[in-house]
TrEMBL record:
It comes from the Bacteria. It is found in: Cellular thylakoid membrane; Endomembrane system; Membrane. NDH-1 can be composed of about 15 different subunits; different subcomplexes with different compositions have been identified which probably have different functions. Its main location: membrane. The gene is ndhB. Residues 129-424 form the NADH:quinone oxidoreductase/Mrp antiporter transmembrane domain. GO terms for cellular component: endomembrane system; plasma membrane-derived thylakoid membrane. It comes from Aliterella atlantica CENA595. One of its GO terms (biological process) is photosynthesis, light reaction. This is NAD(P)H-quinone oxidoreductase subunit 2. The lineage of its organism: Bacteria, Bacillati, Cyanobacteriota, Cyanophyceae, Chroococcidiopsidales. It holds the Pfam family Ndh2_N.
Amino acid sequence: MDFATLAAQLNAGTILPEGIVITTLLVVLVGDLIGGRSASRWIPYFAIGGLLSAIIALYFQWDNPNPISFLGGFNGDDLSVVFRGIIALSTAVTILMSIRYVEQSGTALAEFIGIMLSATLGGMFLSGANELVMIFISLETLSISSYLMTGYTKRDPRSNEAALKYLLIGASSTAVFLYGVSLLYGLSGGETRLGAIAANIPNINGAQSFGLVIALVFVIAGIGFKISAAPFHQWTPDVYEGAPTPVIAFLSVGSKAAGFALAIRLLTTAFPLITGEWQFVFTALAILSMILGNVVALAQTSMKRMLAYSSIAQAGFVMIGLIAGTEAGYSSMIFYLAIYLFMNLGGFACVILFSLRTGTDQISEYSGLYQKDPLLTLCLSICLLSLGGIPPLAGFFGKIYLFWAGWQAGEYGLVLLGLVTTVVSIYYYIRVVRMMVVKEPQEMSDAVKNYPAINWKLPGMRPIQVCLILTLIATSLAGILSNPLFSLANNSVARTAILQPAIAATLKADATPLSVVKAAE
């Protein structure tokens, strides 16, 4: 094989965005070694610039006529482009809000950003991975980096405890997931590419294979851990409470988006024979996640734990689009994850700012905050109301799109449950807003009474202010001006070849009962 043929088969230009992130990571590490503490003044902004450059590179890869690269190991189709963009953008926003937090904790900022960029690389590669080995390596890159970030504030015993729990449960879920994909490898006769696995399994094992169902169960267990779906959510509340807040902000958006990208690609490509089975399992996970996440959140006294259970519930809502299996279903998932990025990261930015100024994250301590910090109160209120699905904010349009896609696909019970649990969620979101806004001055909490004077000129505070304003504007306007996002989500699904057979099979299955009735008549 000559060099030109090898280069054509590798098609390395497909991973140019990841190449930019790798270069950024190397510059951050070398710059920190050379510049020491003084390098922390420019490193975070350079990292953000590198991530934005990667997003620009992704824009130019849209509708790539030749997306397959590395001998079929990576697929840079439009679906992966959107998910990689969401992950890179979530990291850029997270770095903005983490500068002051990490410096105040007394730990090294450059190393923290380096680990976060490594996690970003894992998530981006996972979004386009088209081969079992690539999937596993990408998943482990994301997971190990997440474990390291969770325990990054090593002087904090809560952070150490969270990291240990996350590591132990994560290692178990990884082992289960690996067993599932090894079964796929064996059932397919030694294939690792997802398309070849789907083609070989029926030839070797026939139309029905019990081993394939076992593999599916183990794979879904691994995916459920990554997206914080009940009953694989045990790590979520403890990790959210104990880990550094910027870390859980990234985990709630970037890691979750990578998990859903893996779910779509792996389930639709490798398990087309048992689509009904995996949709049934995810229906059970969605029901559990929506009920458990929203009901248990009602009893929380810590803002971070409340957002943890909110994250579990939000995963349940997003699964409605996955279960629908239609073009509108997959598009609604992408649309909701894109706006979830801004409203969730905006909420965590507010939690970071409040904890920096008061040293607490207890919900009761937010009482009367409007009197001292109107900007923080406004941003947190808008983000929480958007998470609850209050019109005309972005979250309302995201949930409407998800529920509409589920209703069209005949998932009436799931949609009705989603509506009921959304009403439940509004209660615990509005409880925080009411506490901040409605309380009389004499009912202020001690933390708010001792609230320090607002000074945005302190080191690292200006990036948090920029983050607050950006997320506030995006959350307020993304719903009203949602046509570009709608078009992006719809086009990414319509132009992704691997989804078309799954969508066609779903439409055929939905049309079968109607044709039987007409034939009987």
